[in-house]
Amino acid sequence: MKSPVVFTDWDGTVTLQDSNDYMTDHLGFGEVERKRIGKMILDEKLSFRDGFNMMLKSITDKGYSMEYCIETLLKNIKLDPGFRPFLEWCKAHNVPLYVISSGMRPIINALLKTLVGDDAADYVNILANDVEYDSVDHSKWHIVYRDETPFGHDKSRSIKKILAEYHDVKPIAFYCGDGVSDLSASSTCDLLFARSGKDLVTFCDRHHIPYREFYSFVNITDDVNAVSHGVKTIEDCLVK
Predict the structure, then answer these.
(1) Of 85, 120, 218, 234, whose CA is between 20 and 30 Å from 15?
(2) Could you give the CA distance from residue 123 to residue 92 in angstroms, rounded to a whole number?
(3) Which residues are identified as catalytic?
(4) Rg of the Cα trace of the chain?
């Protein structure tokens, strides 16, 4: 078996709904404005970071604490049904699994532990933006980005840093995503999985970036397993 490593986005990729979109739609300025901003990001008229700041500000301006946001999300966000079996496959084959997210660590941690359990969640390495709380009023918070880039978290930097730790044998690097924030990661991995019907597919088609379309992590498990065991090549998987 060849040595694979898997990187995945969280919101809308591992989960069926994007938690940040859900918060914006239900706690912030609503779906119409959120989609308007999303289109500007997709059309490259607005950076992901600036658009995301607008969405989060619409939530914090209404006084919603991070604790309340997490409680709301735990009641409404569902996991891709194929993710838990994929995680178990990774554990069984000692395949490193990283969540590389433009979302916020407290939210991802809470959802991951609730949806897959503490033991399974402990296997997953999370690299995401953080949250800083007001020293006087802990209910007030703001996002703390990992870097200064227009993405807020340039995922390619995180992935390159991890891959640089492999000195002897370079692993086969897989990345799973669904949105514009995943674009920087596409150039750092051997095979990009893009969720069907989402912005990442649109952008890849628009810019002729090769990818493998997926509907569930069941598809990803099959392909990662097949490529790792030499049954398929990367080229076999790509959209032509």
Answers:
(1) 234
(2) 11
(3) 9, 11
(4) 18
Identify which of 218, 145, 214 has the alpha carbon closest to the alpha carbon of residue 178.
214
The pLDDT of residue 240 is above 70: no
Q: What is the 3-state secondary structure (H, E, C) of 161-225?
A: HHHCCCCCCCCEEEEEECCHHHHHHHCCCCEEEEECCCHHHHHHHHHCCCCEEECCHHHHHHHHH
User: pLDDT band at 239, cuts 50/70/90?
Assistant: low
**Going by C-beta distance under 8 Å and a sequence separation of 6 or more, which residues neighbour residue 57?**
none
Distance CA 155, CA 33 (A): 26
| Contact status, residue 9 vs residue 107, Cβ threshold 8 Å | no
Instruction: Identify whether 43 is part of a domain.
Output: no
Q: Give the CATH number of the domain where residue 177 resides.
A: 3.40.50.1000
How many angstroms separate the CA atoms of 222 and 86, rounded?
A: 9
To the question of pTM greater than 0.90 for the whole model, the response is yes
Domain total of the chain: 1
End-to-end CA distance of the chain: 26
Q: What is the pLDDT of residues 129-186, one digit of tens each?
A: 999 999 888 889 999 999 999 999 999 999 999 999 988 888 999 999 998 788 878 7
